[in-house]
Amino acid sequence: MKFNDILKNSFMDNFAITGVSITDVLNVMLITFVLSLYIFFVYRFLSRKTFYDKNFNISLPAVALITAAIIITIQSSVIVSLGMVGALSIVRFRTAIKDPMDLVFMFWAIATGIICGAGFYTVAFIAALTITVVICLLDRIPVVQAQKVLVIQASVKDMENAIVKNIAQYTKYYKVKSKNISQEGLNMVVEIKAKDDSVLLQSLSDMENVVYVSLLDYDGEIVSL
Length: 225
Prior knowledge:
Alpha-Beta Plaits; 2 domains; disordered C terminus; alpha+beta; two-stranded antiparallel sheet; 8 helices
């Protein structure tokens, strides 16, 4: 046999389809489902959204199972894997993930499918426990709410000093961010940390010539050091 024939036979052997038993497939799918179900409940427990996105949470186990099936298929044949890579390369996902934690859980589900599909079940279990512990520990880092924004409108232009003096009595911190004087009067935007929001608003609304008072929450968080 010539060297070219040996090289050709060796090359074709690499493209041979490896048989995958039904038992192996079921084992992979079952273990992937158990781990993805664990991810499902972890996401449900740690989700801090006002409106819980059930559809996204359901998609996590589905993504893990689909990924595991793809990995099994890729392992069975190099030809199929090349075709699958080409097919997946044209897929475009246009749904934006708004919460960074959603991206973490989605990547976790995909990684679980890949690891289980490759047969490294122990790695998948250890990774699941480690990720859970890390997320829970970091989630317990104390945070405090950021400053709030106070919007005030007065019908008299020279009320700034009186308004600021009133705000200082009921706040731990305040800073005038902007002020605008027009024919209608005075408009002010003040960044504050109030001792008691309701008392502050009542005090400002009771002031003479104050037309409008509004307190807006900042949607972010700051770290408590």
